[in-house]
Write a structure and sequence with these properties.
- The protein has about 220 residues and is mostly helical.
- The protein contains seven helices and no strands.
- The radius of gyration is 50 Å and the shape is rod-shaped.
- The two termini are about 85 Å apart.
């Protein structure tokens, strides 16, 4: 719409409001299309400006569309081979921490002492083994419980005395359990030493295991 005879010319602001455009966009387009004129929000819309704006709009509408690729030219990716079904996971075994292995060592030695005493002394030895097992079990519970950790040194002292006295039954039973032909080859002195060393290793290992249980419990109570 331009300026007609006897009619006021339409401004860019009115033109933008009528066409739903932003007046600032129209002003920039006018400066670009017709740079010889000075354009502003209230500048009059001339026929040349309307023609320039219409030409720009028609040029955008006539933009060629992209031609889709022919069906024969479509690139197909190779199909992935069928993956074999995943194997069912085997049930995991229960995990044992260091404390559990140490506890096994303590109880194993206590049961060994119980068996040896019953073999040497019969029923009285069987009953004595019950007492030894109860004492070692109580000491181990003290070393594992943070509530009674202050009694840990006393429990270790009692366990040391019991394990030291167990050397006698270890030596006696291990010496008698040695096969005769092995004892003949080693000699009586070597066989006695072998039984003593084996008994000392078992008794010392059990006491050290109980001591380490106490250290682990103390570490949990007083973390670094």
């Amino acid at each position: 719409m331009g300026m007609e005879h006897g009619q006021k010319a339409e401004t860019i602001s009115e033109f933008s409001e009528r066409t739903g455009r932003n007046w600032d966009t129209v002003v920039r387009a006018a400066k670009k299309k017709i740079p010889t004129e000075t354009w502003g929000k209230y500048s009059a819309v001339t026929p040349e400006l309307i023609a320039a704006l219409s030409a720009g709009k028609s040029a955008k509408e006539k933009r060629p569309r992209s031609v889709p690729a022919k069906a024969s030219e479509v690139i197909r990716l190779p199909e992935k081979p069928d993956t074999p079904p995943a194997r069912q996971a085997l049930p995991s075994l229960p995990k044992l921490d260091l404390s559990n292995f140490l506890i096994v060592a303590v109880y194993g030695h206590t049961l060994l002492v119980w068996y040896e005493i019953s073999q040497l002394f019969g029923v009285p030895g069987l009953l004595a083994g019950v007492i030894v097992f109860a004492m070692k079990h109580a000491g181990l519970m003290i070393c594992r419980n943070e509530k009674y950790l202050s009694l840990g040194e006393n429990a270790l002292s009692v366990a040391f005395v019991l394990d030291a006295l167990a050397l006698y039954v270890h030596y006696t039973v291990f010496s008698d359990a040695l096969p005769p032909h092995i004892a003949a080859q080693m000699g009586s002195v070597a066989a006695a030493r072998c039984a003593g060393v084996l008994g000392g290793v078992v008794a010392t290992g059990a006491w050290v295991a109980m001591w380490m249980v106490k250290l682990i419990t103390a570490k949990k109570m007083f973390p670094a």
